[in-house]
Write a structure and sequence with these properties.
- There is one protein chain.
- The protein has 73 residues and is mainly α.
- The protein has a domain of 50 residues.
Length: 73
């Protein structure tokens, strides 16, 4: 299992997006990095392409979480 290495440059696309703020929401999505629990567990075995797809999903999840919630009509 690959360990998180904070000394690796952030520009490395294969580096875990972990920001050491691990807390899962009710959908099992980490509030720190935006990965699902399944993505976190699978990270070390994913290909570079799969990791890039996960990173894209993480960014979208974080953007959605930052949007103000609209009250129902």
């Amino acid at each position: 299992m690959a360990l998180f290495d904070p000394s690796r440059p952030k520009t490395d696309p294969l580096q875990s997006p972990c920001v050491r703020n691990c807390c899962l929401d009710e959908q099992d999505v980490c509030l720190g990095c935006g990965r699902t629990l399944a993505e976190i567990r699978a990270w070390s075995s994913l290909s570079e392409r799969e990791r890039q797809q996960v990173l894209t999903l993480c960014e979208e999840r974080k953007r959605q979480r930052e949007r103000p919630r609209q009250p129902p009509p």
